[in-house]
Description:
The chain has helices at residues 20-31, 75-90, 108-116, 131-142, 145-154, 202-214, 223-238, 292-317; strands at residues 2-5, 8-11, 39-43, 47-50, 67-71, 122-123, 160-163, 178-181, 186-189. By secondary structure, the chain is an alpha/beta fold.
Amino acid sequence: MRIQYRDQTLEFEDEADETIKGLATRCAEKIGADVERISLFFLPRPGLVKHPFPERKLSEFLTPTTRIKLVGTPNTEIKKMDDMAAASRRVTRPSSFKPVQANKSRDWKRIQEESKYTFHAIEPLPYLPNPEKSRRYLERLANDPGIKAAMRKHKFSVGLLTEMNPAEHTTHESKTLGLNRNRGEVIELRLRTDRYDGYRDYKVIRKTLCHELSHNVWGEHDRNFWNLTKEIEQEVERNDTLHGGHRLSNEEFYDPNDTYDDAEHADHGGWTGGDFVLGRSQDAPAETGLSRREIIARAALSRQQKEREARQQQQQQEPSSS
Length: 322
Protein backbone atom coordinates (compact mmCIF):
# COMPACT_ATOMS: atom_id res chain seq x y z
CA MET A 1 0.00 0.00 0.00
CA ARG A 2 1.34 3.43 -0.96
CA ILE A 3 0.49 6.61 0.92
CA GLN A 4 1.52 10.11 -0.13
CA TYR A 5 3.10 12.19 2.64
CA ARG A 6 4.46 15.63 1.78
CA ASP A 7 6.77 15.09 -1.19
CA GLN A 8 7.45 11.40 -0.54
CA THR A 9 5.63 8.09 -0.93
CA LEU A 10 5.41 5.82 2.12
CA GLU A 11 5.22 2.05 1.61
CA PHE A 12 3.07 -0.11 3.92
CA GLU A 13 2.48 -3.85 4.00
CA ASP A 14 -1.14 -4.81 3.35
CA GLU A 15 -2.89 -6.26 6.41
CA ALA A 16 -6.02 -8.40 6.24
CA ASP A 17 -9.21 -6.76 7.55
CA GLU A 18 -7.37 -3.54 8.40
CA THR A 19 -9.48 -0.60 9.52
CA ILE A 20 -9.05 3.14 9.05
CA LYS A 21 -8.14 3.35 12.74
CA GLY A 22 -5.46 0.69 12.35
CA LEU A 23 -3.97 2.35 9.28
CA ALA A 24 -3.95 5.73 11.04
CA THR A 25 -2.05 4.20 13.96
CA ARG A 26 0.57 2.74 11.60
CA CYS A 27 0.89 6.05 9.74
CA ALA A 28 1.39 7.97 12.99
CA GLU A 29 4.10 5.53 14.08
CA LYS A 30 5.77 5.77 10.67
CA ILE A 31 6.26 9.55 10.83
CA GLY A 32 6.67 9.73 14.61
CA ALA A 33 3.50 11.71 15.32
CA ASP A 34 0.63 11.44 17.78
CA VAL A 35 -2.32 9.75 16.10
CA GLU A 36 -4.56 12.57 17.39
CA ARG A 37 -2.54 15.04 15.28
CA ILE A 38 -2.80 13.33 11.89
CA SER A 39 -5.47 13.14 9.19
CA LEU A 40 -5.98 10.74 6.29
CA PHE A 41 -7.43 11.76 2.95
CA PHE A 42 -8.90 9.03 0.74
CA LEU A 43 -9.56 10.06 -2.87
CA PRO A 44 -12.15 9.88 -4.24
CA ARG A 45 -13.95 8.65 -1.10
CA PRO A 46 -14.61 8.73 1.80
CA GLY A 47 -12.56 11.94 1.72
CA LEU A 48 -10.95 13.56 4.76
CA VAL A 49 -10.92 11.45 7.95
CA LYS A 50 -9.71 12.85 11.28
CA HIS A 51 -9.29 11.58 14.83
CA PRO A 52 -11.13 9.75 16.33
CA PHE A 53 -10.70 7.34 13.45
CA PRO A 54 -13.52 4.84 12.77
CA GLU A 55 -13.23 1.05 12.82
CA ARG A 56 -14.47 0.89 9.22
CA LYS A 57 -12.64 -1.72 7.15
CA LEU A 58 -10.53 -0.46 4.26
CA SER A 59 -11.83 -3.29 2.08
CA GLU A 60 -15.27 -1.65 2.10
CA PHE A 61 -14.15 1.27 -0.06
CA LEU A 62 -10.56 0.88 -1.28
CA THR A 63 -10.13 0.25 -5.02
CA PRO A 64 -7.00 -0.08 -7.18
CA THR A 65 -7.35 3.62 -8.11
CA THR A 66 -7.86 4.97 -4.57
CA ARG A 67 -5.23 7.49 -3.53
CA ILE A 68 -4.36 8.04 0.13
CA LYS A 69 -2.72 11.17 1.52
CA LEU A 70 -1.35 11.56 5.03
CA VAL A 71 -1.36 14.94 6.76
CA GLY A 72 0.52 15.46 10.01
CA THR A 73 3.60 16.88 11.71
CA PRO A 74 6.19 14.64 13.45
CA ASN A 75 6.61 15.19 17.19
CA THR A 76 10.27 16.07 16.69
CA GLU A 77 9.33 19.00 14.45
CA ILE A 78 6.68 20.19 16.89
CA LYS A 79 9.14 19.99 19.80
CA LYS A 80 11.77 21.87 17.82
CA MET A 81 9.33 24.66 17.03
CA ASP A 82 8.10 24.80 20.63
CA ASP A 83 11.66 24.88 22.00
CA MET A 84 12.69 27.69 19.68
CA ALA A 85 9.57 29.67 20.52
CA ALA A 86 10.22 29.19 24.26
CA ALA A 87 13.89 30.14 23.87
CA SER A 88 13.00 33.34 22.05
CA ARG A 89 10.68 34.30 24.93
CA ARG A 90 13.37 33.62 27.57
CA VAL A 91 16.03 35.73 25.92
CA THR A 92 16.73 38.90 27.91
CA ARG A 93 18.85 41.72 26.57
CA PRO A 94 20.72 44.46 28.50
CA SER A 95 19.06 47.85 28.09
CA SER A 96 22.24 49.22 26.45
CA PHE A 97 21.77 46.87 23.52
CA LYS A 98 19.46 47.64 20.65
CA PRO A 99 16.70 45.03 20.43
CA VAL A 100 17.06 42.70 17.49
CA GLN A 101 14.11 42.51 15.14
CA ALA A 102 12.43 39.12 15.08
CA ASN A 103 13.20 37.06 12.01
CA LYS A 104 9.93 36.54 10.19
CA SER A 105 11.24 33.37 8.60
CA ARG A 106 11.49 31.86 12.09
CA ASP A 107 7.92 32.50 13.15
CA TRP A 108 7.45 28.96 14.44
CA LYS A 109 3.96 29.57 15.76
CA ARG A 110 2.87 30.65 12.31
CA ILE A 111 4.48 27.58 10.73
CA GLN A 112 2.60 25.33 13.14
CA GLU A 113 -0.70 27.06 12.43
CA GLU A 114 -0.20 26.99 8.66
CA SER A 115 0.29 23.22 8.75
CA LYS A 116 -3.00 22.85 10.61
CA TYR A 117 -5.19 25.57 9.10
CA THR A 118 -4.76 24.87 5.42
CA PHE A 119 -6.05 22.99 2.37
CA HIS A 120 -5.00 19.43 3.14
CA ALA A 121 -5.30 18.22 -0.45
CA ILE A 122 -5.36 19.96 -3.84
CA GLU A 123 -6.67 18.17 -6.92
CA PRO A 124 -7.78 19.39 -10.38
CA LEU A 125 -10.42 17.58 -12.43
CA PRO A 126 -8.41 15.02 -14.44
CA TYR A 127 -10.96 14.69 -17.26
CA LEU A 128 -10.72 18.37 -18.26
CA PRO A 129 -7.90 19.63 -20.52
CA ASN A 130 -4.56 20.65 -19.00
CA PRO A 131 -5.22 19.58 -15.38
CA GLU A 132 -1.69 20.52 -14.30
CA LYS A 133 -2.38 24.15 -15.13
CA SER A 134 -5.46 23.97 -12.92
CA ARG A 135 -3.31 22.46 -10.18
CA ARG A 136 -0.91 25.41 -10.40
CA TYR A 137 -3.86 27.77 -10.10
CA LEU A 138 -5.22 25.99 -7.02
CA GLU A 139 -1.77 25.85 -5.42
CA ARG A 140 -1.31 29.57 -5.99
CA LEU A 141 -4.60 30.24 -4.23
CA ALA A 142 -3.70 27.94 -1.34
CA ASN A 143 -0.31 29.65 -0.93
CA ASP A 144 -1.64 33.19 -1.30
CA PRO A 145 -0.30 35.15 1.73
CA GLY A 146 -3.66 36.81 2.28
CA ILE A 147 -5.60 33.54 2.14
CA LYS A 148 -3.10 31.86 4.49
CA ALA A 149 -3.36 34.75 6.97
CA ALA A 150 -7.17 34.61 6.95
CA MET A 151 -7.19 30.84 7.43
CA ARG A 152 -4.83 31.13 10.41
CA LYS A 153 -6.92 33.85 12.04
CA HIS A 154 -10.25 32.05 11.65
CA LYS A 155 -8.80 28.54 12.11
CA PHE A 156 -10.15 27.32 8.77
CA SER A 157 -9.25 23.77 7.73
CA VAL A 158 -10.37 22.50 4.31
CA GLY A 159 -10.09 18.85 3.32
CA LEU A 160 -9.93 19.27 -0.45
CA LEU A 161 -9.58 22.28 -2.76
CA THR A 162 -10.59 21.43 -6.31
CA GLU A 163 -12.01 22.97 -9.47
CA MET A 164 -15.56 22.99 -10.76
CA ASN A 165 -16.73 21.89 -14.19
CA PRO A 166 -18.60 24.92 -15.63
CA ALA A 167 -20.87 22.69 -17.75
CA GLU A 168 -22.27 21.01 -14.67
CA HIS A 169 -22.98 24.25 -12.80
CA THR A 170 -24.59 26.48 -15.42
CA THR A 171 -28.28 26.96 -16.16
CA HIS A 172 -30.22 29.41 -18.29
CA GLU A 173 -30.83 31.44 -15.11
CA SER A 174 -27.52 31.39 -13.24
CA LYS A 175 -24.05 29.95 -12.91
CA THR A 176 -22.31 28.80 -9.77
CA LEU A 177 -18.85 30.24 -9.08
CA GLY A 178 -18.02 28.07 -6.08
CA LEU A 179 -19.31 25.47 -3.64
CA ASN A 180 -18.47 24.59 -0.04
CA ARG A 181 -19.54 21.07 0.89
CA ASN A 182 -20.10 20.12 4.53
CA ARG A 183 -18.45 23.21 6.05
CA GLY A 184 -15.02 22.76 4.56
CA GLU A 185 -14.86 19.10 3.58
CA VAL A 186 -14.54 20.17 -0.06
CA ILE A 187 -14.38 23.59 -1.74
CA GLU A 188 -14.92 23.74 -5.51
CA LEU A 189 -14.00 26.82 -7.55
CA ARG A 190 -14.99 27.76 -11.10
CA LEU A 191 -11.50 28.34 -12.49
CA ARG A 192 -12.23 28.01 -16.21
CA THR A 193 -14.12 30.26 -18.59
CA ASP A 194 -17.52 29.10 -19.81
CA ARG A 195 -16.06 28.14 -23.21
CA TYR A 196 -13.07 26.31 -21.68
CA ASP A 197 -10.66 28.49 -23.67
CA GLY A 198 -8.88 29.96 -20.67
CA TYR A 199 -9.00 30.73 -16.97
CA ARG A 200 -10.86 33.36 -15.00
CA ASP A 201 -9.05 36.27 -13.36
CA TYR A 202 -7.05 35.38 -10.26
CA LYS A 203 -8.42 38.11 -8.01
CA VAL A 204 -11.98 37.23 -9.00
CA ILE A 205 -11.43 33.58 -8.06
CA ARG A 206 -9.69 34.60 -4.85
CA LYS A 207 -12.74 36.65 -3.90
CA THR A 208 -14.91 33.62 -4.64
CA LEU A 209 -12.69 31.60 -2.30
CA CYS A 210 -13.25 34.18 0.46
CA HIS A 211 -16.99 33.71 -0.06
CA GLU A 212 -16.72 29.93 0.19
CA LEU A 213 -14.47 30.04 3.27
CA SER A 214 -17.20 32.02 5.03
CA HIS A 215 -19.47 28.99 4.52
CA ASN A 216 -17.17 27.08 6.90
CA VAL A 217 -19.03 29.03 9.60
CA TRP A 218 -22.32 30.22 8.14
CA GLY A 219 -24.57 28.28 5.78
CA GLU A 220 -27.22 30.81 4.85
CA HIS A 221 -26.50 34.08 3.05
CA ASP A 222 -27.62 36.18 6.01
CA ARG A 223 -26.06 39.27 7.63
CA ASN A 224 -23.66 37.13 9.69
CA PHE A 225 -22.41 35.48 6.51
CA TRP A 226 -21.86 38.72 4.60
CA ASN A 227 -20.14 40.38 7.58
CA LEU A 228 -17.67 37.50 7.83
CA THR A 229 -17.13 37.42 4.06
CA LYS A 230 -16.32 41.13 4.06
CA GLU A 231 -13.94 40.64 6.98
CA ILE A 232 -12.11 37.81 5.19
CA GLU A 233 -11.85 39.85 1.97
CA GLN A 234 -10.32 42.78 3.88
CA GLU A 235 -7.85 40.48 5.64
CA VAL A 236 -6.80 38.94 2.33
CA GLU A 237 -6.27 42.35 0.73
CA ARG A 238 -4.39 43.64 3.77
CA ASN A 239 -2.01 40.68 3.81
CA ASP A 240 -1.53 40.52 0.04
CA THR A 241 2.23 40.89 -0.32
CA LEU A 242 2.57 39.19 -3.71
CA HIS A 243 -0.28 40.45 -5.85
CA GLY A 244 -0.56 44.11 -4.95
CA GLY A 245 -1.32 46.76 -7.55
CA HIS A 246 -1.41 45.47 -11.12
CA ARG A 247 1.38 42.95 -10.82
CA LEU A 248 -0.91 40.13 -11.91
CA SER A 249 -1.06 41.56 -15.43
CA ASN A 250 2.16 39.66 -16.08
CA GLU A 251 0.79 36.39 -14.70
CA GLU A 252 -0.97 33.62 -16.58
CA PHE A 253 -4.23 34.01 -14.64
CA TYR A 254 -5.06 37.63 -15.37
CA ASP A 255 -8.18 38.82 -17.17
CA PRO A 256 -8.97 42.55 -16.78
CA ASN A 257 -12.47 42.01 -18.21
CA ASP A 258 -13.44 39.42 -15.59
CA THR A 259 -15.37 40.85 -12.64
CA TYR A 260 -16.94 39.50 -9.46
CA ASP A 261 -20.62 40.08 -8.76
CA ASP A 262 -22.21 38.95 -5.48
CA ALA A 263 -25.55 38.62 -7.25
CA GLU A 264 -23.99 36.20 -9.75
CA HIS A 265 -22.61 33.95 -7.04
CA ALA A 266 -25.51 31.50 -7.03
CA ASP A 267 -24.13 28.84 -4.69
CA HIS A 268 -27.37 28.87 -2.66
CA GLY A 269 -25.42 28.71 0.60
CA GLY A 270 -23.16 26.04 2.04
CA TRP A 271 -23.99 22.58 0.69
CA THR A 272 -24.46 19.74 3.19
CA GLY A 273 -24.71 15.98 2.81
CA GLY A 274 -23.99 13.40 0.13
CA ASP A 275 -20.73 11.97 -1.18
CA PHE A 276 -18.21 13.90 -3.23
CA VAL A 277 -16.46 11.92 -5.96
CA LEU A 278 -13.48 13.58 -7.63
CA GLY A 279 -12.43 12.87 -11.18
CA ARG A 280 -15.70 12.01 -12.85
CA SER A 281 -17.93 14.03 -15.14
CA GLN A 282 -21.66 13.75 -14.56
CA ASP A 283 -22.18 13.46 -18.32
CA ALA A 284 -19.16 11.27 -19.06
CA PRO A 285 -18.51 8.89 -16.16
CA ALA A 286 -15.57 7.03 -17.67
CA GLU A 287 -13.97 9.67 -19.88
CA THR A 288 -10.80 11.62 -19.33
CA GLY A 289 -9.03 14.35 -21.25
CA LEU A 290 -11.98 15.57 -23.32
CA SER A 291 -11.16 18.13 -26.01
CA ARG A 292 -12.47 21.67 -25.74
CA ARG A 293 -14.87 21.05 -28.65
CA GLU A 294 -16.28 17.93 -26.98
CA ILE A 295 -16.70 19.74 -23.68
CA ILE A 296 -18.53 22.67 -25.29
CA ALA A 297 -20.82 20.29 -27.17
CA ARG A 298 -21.62 18.38 -24.01
CA ALA A 299 -22.14 21.63 -22.11
CA ALA A 300 -24.64 22.81 -24.74
CA LEU A 301 -26.54 19.51 -24.56
CA SER A 302 -26.51 19.66 -20.78
CA ARG A 303 -27.91 23.21 -20.76
CA GLN A 304 -30.61 22.28 -23.27
CA GLN A 305 -31.64 19.31 -21.15
CA LYS A 306 -31.81 21.46 -18.02
CA GLU A 307 -33.90 24.07 -19.84
CA ARG A 308 -36.32 21.39 -21.09
CA GLU A 309 -36.66 19.99 -17.59
CA ALA A 310 -37.28 23.48 -16.20
CA ARG A 311 -40.00 24.16 -18.79
CA GLN A 312 -41.65 20.80 -18.12
CA GLN A 313 -41.62 21.43 -14.39
CA GLN A 314 -43.12 24.89 -14.89
CA GLN A 315 -45.86 23.48 -17.13
CA GLN A 316 -46.72 20.85 -14.54
CA GLN A 317 -47.02 23.51 -11.84
CA GLU A 318 -49.30 25.78 -13.91
CA PRO A 319 -53.04 25.21 -13.29
CA SER A 320 -54.96 23.56 -16.12
CA SER A 321 -56.83 26.03 -18.34
CA SER A 322 -59.70 23.58 -18.95
